[in-house]
Amino acid sequence: MNAQKTAQTSTVHPRLEIRNLRRTFQGRNVVDDVSLAVMPGQVTCLLGPSGCGKSTTLRMIAGVDMQDAGEIYVDGALVCDTVHRVPPEGRSIGLMFQDFALFPHLSVAANVAFGLKGSKAEKQARVEELLEKVDLLGALKKFPHELSGGEQQRVALARALAPRPSVMLMDEPFSGLDERLKDDIRDSTLEVLKAEGTAVLLVTHEPDEAMRMADEIALMRDGKIVQQGAPYNIYNAPVDKKSAAFFSDINVIGGEVQGALVSTAFGEFLCPGHADGTPVEIVIRPQHLRIDFDRAGRGPNPTPQDGTPARGIVERARFMGRESLVDFRMDFDGSILRATVPSVFLPKQGTPLWLMLRRERCFVFPQT
Ligand SMILES: Nc1ncnc2c1ncn2[C@@H]1O[C@H](COP(=O)(O)OP(=O)(O)OP(=O)(O)O)[C@@H](O)[C@H]1O
Fold it and tell me: Cα(306) to centroid of ligand 1, in Å?
């Protein structure tokens, strides 16, 4: 059985589709019923904490490990179920991992040409096309040790893309790079991948990287995809507290439902669909708290958007460059709430201030 390649322009099928993949190690489902599809030119990030099963998922798609259940399709053709298995080299899948190893004894051009089929002229044309795309045409004759880490990474990208794979699998490909280089390399990598029309599945545990790179994020936890969607939606409409907390610090305010409402020191919140007595948590990111001044203990006037203000005492304030972090010990229960403020805001420890929650930015979840 061979992976049937369809025309590059076909949009009928996703380039990559996995259905109900499962992998069990020592009786534990480390990948548990995972399904996703990646369209041509689309970047999907498989995002999740260490050990959640991201790499195992990628290894099954690459064909270096085999699933216990489920199917993998490339360009609409089945490449692996639990009976049939196309070998890795027959799947039209390119790979790029953190420890991408270029062949040290081969020139940049020979590294990119490695694994290419066709006449010498065809190979040369493809090598030059890709090296131009990654802005390294001038380094054609150099050897890997003569290049910086970032340049080597771009050669590795060119090499992986040279055979025109339908699908590109990337496992933490930027984690070995200098922090300051990363953003530029991420952006230029994205540009090349989009231009090639490859479907990309990129594994990362860094939310910032996923937000920057992904058209779609598949958020994974304990072997399962818990939420999938555009970065904006995943960030702004998390399915639960853990999903919210994966992207930023969060503040949590507890309460109990009575008559579809939960009463807190910040006023009442709507909780439709929860029975009376259900313990719930109101979750809000630090940038969505509003701070107001004490005005001799009177605080601000409540507004419909911001609800009731609650007083806190500044415990600690730090300037982080783009924003300031201020921690408050709240009068109502002694808990700590954190607010971030753009630019510089460094109130002294012990200063009384008032906090309000931006209502439309609060998430209400059943307590876990
Ligand atoms: N061959 C194996 N035998 C037994 N357990 C394994 C094997 N491979 C992976 N695991 C376990 O499966 C779980 C998922 O591992 P995996 O490497 O897929 O996670 P990950 O999300 O990629 O983590 P990281 O970001 O740290 O690489 C881990 O608990 C790991 O220990």
Answer: 44
- In angstroms and rounded to an integer, the radius of gyration of the C-alpha atoms of the chain is 25
Domain 16-92+165-244: CATH superfamily, name plus number: P-loop containing nucleotide triphosphate hydrolases (3.40.50.300)
- Which residues, listed in sequence order, are joined to residue 364 by a DSSP beta bridge? 282
Predicted confidence (pLDDT) at residue 12 exceeds the cutoff of 60: no
CA dist 261 to 145, 196, 240, 277, 302, Å?
64, 52, 19, 10, 19
CB contact at 8 A, 18 and 70: yes
Q: Is 51 in the pocket of ligand 1 (CB under 6 A)?
A: yes
Structure tokens at 71: 């199917």
Q: Where are the alpha helices (DSSP H) in the chain?
A: 54-62, 108-113, 120-133, 149-161, 179-196, 207-213, 231-236, 241-247
Residue intervals in the chain for CATH 2.40.50.140: 248-366
In which residue ranges of the chain is CATH 3.40.50.300 found?
16-92+165-244
pLDDT of residue 178: 77
Pocket test for ligand 1, best of 24, 25, 205, 206 (most atoms within 8 A of CB): 25
Q: Which helix (H) or strand (E) holds 167?
A: strand 167-171
From 275, 243, 260, 267, select the one nearest 363 (Cα to Cα).
243
Ligand 1 pocket check for 56: Cβ under 6 Å: yes
CA 27-170-102 angle, to 5 degrees, is 115
pLDDT digits over 130-153, tens only?
A: 999 888 999 999 999 999 888 888
Domain spanning 248-366 has what CATH number? 2.40.50.140
Contact 312, 355 (CB under 8 A): yes
- Centre a 10 Å sphere on the Cβ of residue 346 and count the other Cβ atoms it contains: 12
The pLDDT tens digits for 189-233 are 888 888 888 999 999 999 999 999 999 999 999 999 999 999 999
